[in-house]
Amino acid sequence: MTTIANPEELPVPAIVLAGGRSSRMGSNKALLPLGGVPMLRHIIDRLSPQVTSVALNAPPGWPESFGLPLVPDTVAGQAGPIAGIAAGLHHALRQDTGTTHILTVPSDSPFFPADLVLRLHAAIKGTDEIVIAVSGGQDHPVFGLWPLSLSADMEMFLRTDERRRLRDFFGRHVTREVDFPFVETPAGPLDPFFNVNTPDDFARAQKFLEHFHA
Ligand SMILES: Nc1nc2c(ncn2[C@@H]2O[C@H](COP(=O)(O)OP(=O)(O)OP(=O)(O)O)[C@@H](O)[C@H]2O)c(=O)[nH]1
Ligand SMILES: [Mg+2]
């Protein structure tokens, strides 16, 4: 393990996970217009100032990539978010950017914190550590910093573990958590990691967007 002297100075590339089925929504949720703008566009805009590059983890034939490089899963069969994270690590290693971690964010959480990367970064004490976001006592494993050094182990986990659950993968490595506060809005307290799964969630997101300027 290498100790990081000053985590804030580390450059972080990001990948947006959009390889899911949107089965609860019934149509590609990342591209639904939220306030007239595709949800994925909100996410890219929120992410871009925080990271050195953004890639999009989505299947071949994805209709709108917003000019981002498309990175498909390396294992077939929509094996869950961990397949997207593994694809992101694989992609970053090939890019050889000299970074120790990548950031992942999902494509269905448009209100995540503007200081997400800064705060996750500050929690890292070693280059082999995972850091994930927490709010209201709930962890959000798709919002995390992932060490490139874990790429091979994640790939193996993905190919051999039956359940392929992210939380099971954490047990194999040091995993830190960073807690983020709810945001007060006139529509009520907003979990910054509120994610859109169903048409009802989408209607709630539209309401929150009207009040959201953080
Ligand atoms: N690359 C990849 N990403 C996935 C996969 N499954 C889910 N995700 C992503 O992980 C994030 C959280 O997943 P969910 O909220 O379950 O989204 P989903 O799977 O599209 O939706 P449901 O079908 O309703 O479960 C989203 O950004 C998804 O795009 C997968 O098999 N591969
Ligand atoms: Mg799912």
TrEMBL record:
Subcellular location: Cytoplasm
Cross-referenced SUPFAM superfamilies: Nucleotide-diphospho-sugar transferases (SSF53448)
Catalysed reactions, semicolon-separated: Mo-molybdopterin + GTP + H(+) = Mo-molybdopterin guanine dinucleotide + diphosphate
GO MF assignments: GTP binding; metal ion binding; molybdenum cofactor guanylyltransferase activity
GO-annotated cellular components: cytoplasm
Gene3D superfamilies attached to this UniProt entry: Spore Coat Polysaccharide Biosynthesis Protein SpsA, Chain A
Domain MobA-like NTP transferase: 14-173
Record keyword Nucleotidyltransferase present: yes
One of the GO BP terms on file: bis(molybdopterin guanine dinucleotide)molybdenum biosynthetic process
CDD domains with a match to the protein in the record: MobA
Keywords: Cytoplasm, GTP-binding, Magnesium, Metal-binding, Molybdenum cofactor biosynthesis, Nucleotide-binding, Nucleotidyltransferase, Transferase
Domain note: The N-terminal domain determines nucleotide recognition and specific binding, while the C-terminal domain determines the specific binding to the target protein.
Protein task: Transfers a GMP moiety from GTP to Mo-molybdopterin (Mo-MPT) cofactor (Moco or molybdenum cofactor) to form Mo-molybdopterin guanine dinucleotide (Mo-MGD) cofactor.
Name under which the protein is recorded: Molybdenum cofactor guanylyltransferase
Organism: Metarhizobium album
Lineage: Bacteria, Pseudomonadati, Pseudomonadota, Alphaproteobacteria, Hyphomicrobiales
